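Entry under discussion copied across for reference:
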Amino acid sequence: QKKRRAATARRQHLKSAMLQLAATEIEKEAAAKEVEKQNYLAEHCPPLSLPGSMQELQDLCKKLHAKIESVDEERYDTEVKLQKTNKELEDLSQKLFDLRGKFKRPPLRRVRMSADAMLRALLGSKHKVCMDLRANLKQVKKEDTEKEKDLRDVGDWRKNIEEKSGMEGRKKMFEAGE
């Protein structure tokens, strides 16, 4: 147990020493970046001195506009170069893909699925609707009603019209109504 305690203590000591070294390195890098930033700004952005007269101010504005235009042109040129290189990279990667060989799609197999299984696969556990449409239908018993019998007995409609035409037909209808 003493050896284990010594080993864990040594590990913790090494770990803390490494963390301290890393912290100092991070601080040094941050300081170096700050110095580099100051040097860059001092080189590219001289301190601004505002002249007193209006003509000198106008000249300064013209110089600043000229610098802005030149920087914009450089930015545009670099963007165009970047787009060109990206396009070339895409073309080369496509050529490489074509040279390696054609991608062969595997043949698709037919799978028989019921509507319930398909809905379960698409919706997951949310699926509660049953697609068995025949189960939801009502059972209807066909009954022979008197109207249907009468219609079958009548037969041809022309005979029915002839019977009801004239006074005799109206008399029959009147007597049937009573």
